[in-house]
TrEMBL record:
Residues 22-97 form the (S)-ureidoglycine aminohydrolase cupin domain. PANTHER family: OS04G0445200 PROTEIN (PTHR33271), RMLC-LIKE CUPINS SUPERFAMILY PROTEIN (PTHR33271:SF3). InterPro entries: RmlC-like_jellyroll, RmlC_Cupin_sf, UGlyAH_Cupin_dom. Gene3D superfamilies: Jelly Rolls. Transmembrane segments: none annotated. Signal peptide: none annotated. This is (S)-ureidoglycine aminohydrolase cupin domain-containing protein.
Length: 105
């Protein structure tokens, strides 16, 4: 199948992960990032795992009106490496995040 390889990259959303799972991951020690409502072009050069403390986001494939994911406060989200997308933020986001360091050194 021709086309961009990024088209089959999927975003994984865990709704309401347990407190024990969150503390296992060490979420509270991760850096924080926030943004106000708006549209953002994002490219993920590494896999990112994030936990939304607040916010509401719809994710669209880059240069497309195709929605590929939707998540918000309380969701644990895994964004794949190589993903180019547009975040349409309707409620300001506050999140903890962590990038997976690629071990291909």
């Amino acid at each position: 199948m021709a086309g961009e390889s990024s088209s089959n990259l999927s975003i994984i959303v865990h709704k309401n992960p347990s407190e024990s799972h969150l503390s296992e991951l060490g979420i509270k020690s991760w850096p924080k990032w926030g943004c106000s409502p708006g549209k953002y072009q994002l490219k993920f050069d590494a896999q990112e795992t994030c936990y939304l403390l607040r916010g509401k986001v719809k994710v669209y494939r880059k240069n497309s009106s195709e929605m590929i994911s939707e998540f918000g406060a309380g969701d644990l989200v895994i964004l794949p490496e190589g993903l180019s997308c547009t975040w349409d933020v309707s409620v300001a986001v506050d999140k903890h995040y962590k990038f997976e360091s690629s071990s291909s050194s």
